[in-house]
Write a structure and sequence with these properties.
four-stranded antiparallel sheet; 14 helices; 397 residues; homodimer; Aspartate Aminotransferase, domain 1; globular; alpha/beta; 2 domains
Chain lengths: 397, 397
């Protein structure tokens, strides 16, 4: 096929304005042999319930092939929505199947949220820092960002002021945040809800990591405290497998109907076969034993990294890191002079990968932080990688 | 979950402007017991290669579970793109794997095309009539429509004039069109390309039905005649199964890269497991025997409906229908006074479903046509359904 375009594509202003993909090349680098990658946001394949999914695929294609291979309900297969509702009720989130829409991975929920709420130039409120993939999905709808105030404990909703007027929704990772690993206290969750009611914005609670707690369950969801103004996104990528591309949205029925409508126009539906597979493994009780296994794996890796940081990191007043109680990430802060983006090529030379902190900001990025992901790296390599990282940082002090 | 929204959602202008879903309720009605539905656009489940897909799922989850269940390349898994390139080269469409992007059903390709080319108010050129699902996907980007001129043989590109200036792309179903079943001649394809070069618009060639020919292969693709200014969409929904939600785009590399970028921000990637399943069945040679089976099924159903129309339809100068040489649809034209939308409730009362023709127009709908789909209805019921339809129409003459 010829690539000599006599006719240049006249892109939309959205497409013309898309920045280069930041995460893609980093993830690509992470697959080179020999490199120790703290860069990926990928769940650990150790935790994939392969056998259960294989049996579920076989079951779907034996018991209901014509249905599993046909188009699906745009809102999601009824069996899966029923299983999700049961599961969420068990987690303390009162949910009816009609409060659930299934999406093709929670990334699609982020994109759809921006599309149905945001006109170009409308404001979305985001944390400092926040999930880069959410910013990328939102950017397709050309919003502006208002950043949430912060204090030494992280996001500080009590400090939200008039900058929140006109905000369409606040996008919040309240539990085991990406990229910081931090968790918002119940008190701060309630403060956020107060501010949402005062300034009349919706809360989009992104909750892909809530089940990945190490020792104790995280605080109640924001949605359970304010179901009338909260939309919550959950993902099967961490508790099942990302290759299924399955996530779901819970919220008031009116909002769910709009998500399902936009979904039906954008992709018709999420694949039916993967939905029925997920419904089957849930109905068979997978989560009752599987989640404990995942938690054990993730906890061991987190502890290995925290121990290595304690052991190797230079004792310096400008160096600190978060101590997550669940999830996949540690947020490392370095002295202000060290630019982690500029440091990255040197790190890669040392066989080490991380994500520079500046990629995680809606507006004014800070440059002296990095996100460390530990779940796909063996405990031995975590120790070796942190040792290399500490040596590299020491050389810059 | 409470539904008393104290805070009403402030939808984007796009969401607020979304019309009610037309196809959804029609498809829903089609599943009621006793009804004979010529309404669905669903492929026949008789043609699903269930056993092959079951073996492919087993193979993926045995041979490469960690990969099949992990995130995928946003442009699509390399094995699947290689198989697609090989297959398209065999069909006379010179294609390199880098000219291919995999999408979550070709509906997603329609949505992405509008997003990356169209600012609100920009023009898309469409046929009269055209695929309603494409209009729905495009509407998410708020375009305006310019309709292609037509003559007694259908779309007439030679008549395109200055109304094409500024059009971002022309959306064309050239082969076994939805909804008419018509196929554009090679001469008209070349005329369209001339007009595209003259007025500098791209051609989006939607080609989901090309393999569903009854007796002889359709004309060469528009893309093979003008690869520099054509983007082509293909679907696995008809040749494999729609529940997989797999489609692909072929085009110049620059355009493919933009599709992949938008795709990565919107959904990260298409599910990996379904992609590897499709690559496996293609590598195992499924299409070499499977497509003949599908063609045989579709041809038999088309012939049954054409025979029934000949037998039962009133002989009236205002009544005519298309004679498709492939695909899934027949387009029935009635005398101008008969409004098929108004007739629909009566048809449903008679246990009969079709899609009113007025849903298939970008701008000025005509009301006296209907789309008849025959592939999911048994030959016996096709005859009975057409008999009922003919009686209903006779009563209105």
């Amino acid at each position: 096929m010829s690539d000599t375009n006599t006719l240049r594509p006249a892109w939309s202003s959205m497409a013309a304005g898309l920045p280069e993909d930041v995460l893609g090349p980093i993830l690509a680098n992470g697959t080179k042999p020999g490199i120790i990658s703290f860069g990926g946001g990928l769940p650990s394949p150790e935790g994939f319930p392969t056998k259960e999914l294989e049996r579920a695929a076989e079951w779907c294609l034996e018991a209901m092939p014509k249905r599993a291979l046909q188009y699906s309900d745009p809102q999601g297969e009824p069996e899966l929505r029923a299983e999700i509702a049961k599961y969420e009720n068990g987690r303390g989130n009162p949910t009816d199947p009609d409060n659930v829409a299934v999406v093709t991975g929670s990334q699609q929920a982020l994109d759809l949220a921006a599309r149905i709420f945001v006109n170009p130039g409308d404001a979305i409120m985001v944390q400092r820092p926040t999930y880069v993939g959410a910013l990328e999905a939102f950017n397709l709808s050309q919003p502006r960002y208002v950043e949430m105030p912060e204090d030494e404990e992280g996001t500080a909703p009590a400090l939200i002021g008039d900058e929140a007027d006109g905000v369409k929704f606040a996008y919040i990772l309240a539990t085991f945040s990406n990229p910081t690993g931090r968790t918002m206290t119940v008190e701060r969750r309630k403060q956020l809800i107060e501010k949402a009611r005062e300034h009349r914005f919706w809360i989009v609670e992104d909750d892909p990591y809530g089940e990945l707690w190490y020792h104790r369950k995280p605080p109640v969801s924001i949605q359970s405290l304010a179901p009338d103004c909260t939309i919550r996104f959950c993902s099967f990528s961490k508790v099942l497998a990302p290759g299924m591309r399955l996530g779901y949205i819970t919220g008031p029925k009116e909002v769910i109907r709009m998500f399902a409508k936009a979904q039906s126009y954008a992709v018709l539906s999420t694949p039916c076969i993967t939905q029925l597979m997920a419904a089957k493994v849930m109905a068979d009780g997978l989560f009752s034993y599987h989640l404990d296994d995942i938690r054990r794996i993730y906890r061991a890796h987190a502890e290995a990294m925290l121990a290595a940081l304690d052991e190797f990191m230079p004792k310096h007043p400008g160096i600190s890191w978060t101590h997550p109680e669940g999830g996949m990430f540690i947020w490392l802060t370095l002295p202000e002079g060290i630019d982690t983006m500029k440091l990255l090529p040197e790190a890669i030379e040392q066989g080490l990968l991380y994500v520079p902190g500046s990629t995680f900001y809606g507006n004014s990025p800070e440059s002296h932080q990095m996100r460390l992901s530990f779940v796909t790296v063996s405990e031995e390599k975590i120790r070796e990688g942190v040792k290399r990282l500490a040596a590299l940082i020491s050389s810059k002090l």
